[in-house]
Every structure is written in structure tokens, then in C-alpha cells.
């Protein structure tokens, strides 16, 4: 390499080192844009940023030495840390390739901008770009091959070790096998002699990763005042989780917490139960809710068991539930926007003990509008709602939570 080109490479590298904070911020943003799970929570985002900084500093420092022989390429420990976390979160290793290439593009564009200001167009500029691009590609290719190899070893260890033991222990508990709770707690790293709230998290549409689901579970645990959740992958887009607490957790806070997760993630929250039996019972309830809600568009992102208990019990047979809704609500069971508006108004009106002003406040509408809709709903029912209050309220709940699954299409 010509000394003058080597000197120019070093000059640009020194400029980029002085701007490393901005460079790393750009790399972080570009990588999260292509792989949102890398920014899903503060912990993994911090590890990603530390890896970007370490790699950029290692490469640029090497270039700034202006050593024609170069320096041995090694892999920063921060780069190995993030890839191990990626594996433990269950994130596809393809994310590593995408992130490195996107980060490399950001660094290369910044190098081009500096070089363009320092060197006029011509043969020397072309040589400078050729030399630097080769050095940069060699470095990134080497690091990627190393971290992927490390990730594959980590994945084999996880799949063949701790994760396998965790899955075996969880399934023994869920199957009702005789399990010593102290030994099971040790194997899981999770205390079973506590209050348990089971979660089933899933991505809908099914484009989320286990890493994004794990991050969402951690956010929910923090909101509920729990420690790190116990998690178990249940498919490519589904995660089982348990929150262990010393008392009743703050479940109302979960709705706010889920807004910080990827927008396609939903969660069914089981009831709070105590001990190893409660671990199983809470999960069974969350699983039943997931079966009902999975594949259904719309609805709340957080489904709490206390709000779904009656619906879950009444909808074990969906065909019979649909028949019940149709015979109870009549024309009001139509799967149309007009009927949906009437059902919603009547449901809230009955929940508010037929108090129109309170129902109007909940529905963000006028009292007279509520009364008009209730009158129209009553006409479609063919009788006053109070005449068959229990079946009408149950049918309205089923229609509200399950939508098209129990409604009549016109």
C-alpha cells in the first residue's frame, strides 16, 4: 500500500474516532430499524450499542496506526456478549448478519463523506476507497464468522442444557407429576412457593421473534413488581411465562407496559394463584384464553383473566356459544358495525346498572345517544334486557370478546 494512501486512511480514521459517539448512535438506530428486537428493551439495546462501539473503535484504531502490515484482527468481548444474549433470547441468528451489514454500511457512508472532503476525485481517491473497503470488509467478515461460531456453540449448550432442563421441569409440573417444589425451584431458578401469574404471549400476525416476546415478558414483570420472569418458548411466535411475587401483583399496570413492546405482541394473563398447584392452574387459565383469542383481530393487547373468566367458561364449545349468542340476541348478533355499536352501548349500559350518564361517560358520547341506542337494541331483542338479564349479559360478553367467532354473518 502506498504510504500516501496509508496516511490518508489514518487521517479519516482519526476523524471518525473523534466522532465515535455520533457514529455509534447512527449504527444503533440503523440496526434497530432493520431488527427491532435489538431495541426491544434497555438491556439488549445497551449490549448492542457496546458491541458497535467496541467494533468501531477496534477497526478505526487499527486504521489510525497507519501500519502497512496491519494488526492482528481479534473480536471484542462486547461483540461476543451481545451474540450470546441473542441466542439466549431465542432470536434468529440471521439478525446478527443483518445488524453487522447495516452497521457496516453506516460506517462506510461516514468514511465516504470524510474522504470526499479530504481527497479530490481521481485515481488516488479510487485507491483510497478500494483499500479501505477491503480492510473494512475483511474485519467485519472475520468478526461475523467468529461471533456466529460462538453463537452456534452457545445455542447447542442452551438447547442441550439449561433450556432442556427447564422445559422438562415445567412440563412435569404442568402434567401434575409428583414434583418436590424445592428441587424444582432450584432447577428452574424460580421460587415455586410464591404467588404465580401465568402469561401466554404471542405475536399476531406471527412475525415476532422469541427475543421480542422475552423482552415483552420482562417489561410486564417489571410493571407487575415481579422479578425476572420464568419463560419457556412454546413455538416460533408464542412464549409461556410466569411472574413470581410475594403477594398480589399490580396487574392493571400491564396495559401500560405492553405499549412499550412490539405492537403485534398480545398477552393472556392468568389468575394469581399460590404454590406449585397455582403455577399450573394459572397457566391452564392463560392457555384457555390464548386458545380463544389467538387469530382474532382487534381487541385489547392485554387480556386479564378476571375480565375473561365467564367468557372462557362459556366458550369451551364455540359452536354452542355461537348458537347461544344468536338465539339470545337475535338480530343484535349480526356481525355488522351497526349491531356492534348497539351491543357495546347495551353492554356498558347494563354494567353501569342502567345509568345512562355513567354509560355515556364511559362511551365518550351523549346521554341521549346512549338512550337512543338502548331503545333500538331493545327493539331488536324483542324484550327489555332486564327481562332476561343474565343470558343477555353473557351473550353480550361473548360477542364483545370473541367477535366474529360467535356472531352471525349477513
UniProtKB/TrEMBL annotation:
CdaR GGDEF-like domain boundaries: 180-291
Limits of the PucR C-terminal helix-turn-helix domain: 342-397
Domain RsbT co-antagonist protein RsbRD N-terminal: residue ranges: 21-166
InterPro entries to which the protein is assigned, alphabetical: CdaR-like_regulators, CdaR_GGDEF, PucR_C-HTH_dom, PucR_C-HTH_sf, RsbRD_N_dom
Classification via Pfam families: GGDEF_2, HTH_30, RsbRD_N
PANTHER family reported in the protein's UniProt record: CARBOHYDRATE DIACID REGULATOR (PTHR33744), DNA-BINDING TRANSCRIPTIONAL ACTIVATOR ADER (PTHR33744:SF1)
Protein family (similarity comment): Belongs to the CdaR family.
Entry protein name: PucR family transcriptional regulator
Species per Swiss-Prot/TrEMBL record: Rhodococcus ruber BKS 20-38
Amino acid at each position: 500500500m502506498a504510504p500516501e494512501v496509508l496516511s490518508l486512511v489514518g487521517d479519516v480514521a482519526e476523524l471518525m474516532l473523534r466522532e465515535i459517539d455520533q457514529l455509534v448512535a447512527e449504527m444503533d438506530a440503523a440496526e434497530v430499524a432493520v431488527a427491532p428486537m435489538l431495541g426491544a428493551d434497555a438491556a439488549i439495546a445497551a449490549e448492542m450499542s457496546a458491541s458497535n462501539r467496541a467494533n468501531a473503535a477496534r477497526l478505526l484504531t487499527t486504521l489510525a496506526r497507519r501500519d502497512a502490515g496491519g494488526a492482528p484482527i481479534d473480536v471484542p468481548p462486547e461483540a461476543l456478549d451481545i451474540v450470546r444474549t441473542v441466542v439466549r433470547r431465542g432470536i434468529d441468528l440471521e439478525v446478527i448478519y443483518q445488524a453487522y451489514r447495516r452497521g457496516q454500511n453506516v460506517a462506510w457512508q461516514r468514511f465516504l463523506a470524510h474522504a470526499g472532503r479530504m481527497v479530490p476525485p481521481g485515481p488516488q481517491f479510487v485507491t483510497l476507497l478500494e483499500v479501505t473497503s477491503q480492510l473494512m470488509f475483511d474485519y467485519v467478515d472475520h468478526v461475523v464468522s467468529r461471533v456466529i461460531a460462538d453463537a452456534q456453540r452457545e445455542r447447542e449448550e442452551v438447547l442441550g442444557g439449561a433450556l432442556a432442563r427447564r422445559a422438562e421441569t415445567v412440563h412435569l409440573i404442568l402434567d401434575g407429576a409428583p414434583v418436590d417444589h424445592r428441587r424444582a425451584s432450584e432447577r428452574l431458578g424460580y421460587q415455586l412457593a410464591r404467588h404465580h401469574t401465568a402469561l401466554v404471549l404471542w405475536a399476531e400476525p406471527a412475525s415476532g421473534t422469541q427475543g421480542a416476546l422475552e423482552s415483552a415478558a420482562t417489561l410486564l414483570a417489571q410493571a407487575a413488581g415481579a422479578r425476572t420472569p420464568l419463560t419457556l418458548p412454546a413455538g416460533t411466535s408464542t412464549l409461556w411465562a410466569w411472574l413470581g411475587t410475594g403477594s398480589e401483583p399490580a396487574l392493571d399496570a400491564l396495559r401500560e407496559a405492553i405499549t412499550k413492546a412490539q405492537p403485534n405482541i398480545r398477552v393472556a394473563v392468568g389468575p394469581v394463584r399460590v404454590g406449585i398447584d397455582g403455577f399450573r392452574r394459572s397457566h391452564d387459565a392463560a392457555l384457555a384464553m390464548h386458545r380463544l383469542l389467538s387469530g382474532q383481530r382487534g381487541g385489547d393487547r392485554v387480556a386479564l383473566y378476571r375480565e375473561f373468566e365467564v367468557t372462557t367458561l362459556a366458550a369451551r364449545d364455540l359452536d354452542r356459544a355461537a348458537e347461544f349468542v344468536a338465539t339470545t340476541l337475535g338480530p343484535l348478533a349480526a356481525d355488522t358495525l351497526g349491531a356492534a355499536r348497539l351491543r357495546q352501548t347495551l353492554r356498558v349500559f347494563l354494567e353501569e346498572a342502567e345509568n345512562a350518564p355513567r354509560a355515556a361517560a364511559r362511551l365518550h358520547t351523549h346521554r341521549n345517544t346512549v338512550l337512543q341506542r338502548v331503545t333500538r337494541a331493545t327493539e331488536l331483542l324483542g324484550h327489555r334486557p332486564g327481562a332476561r338479564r343474565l343470558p343477555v349479559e353473557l351473550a353480550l360478553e361473548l360477542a364483545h370478546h370473541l367477535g366474529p367467532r360467535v356472531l352471525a354473518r349477513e
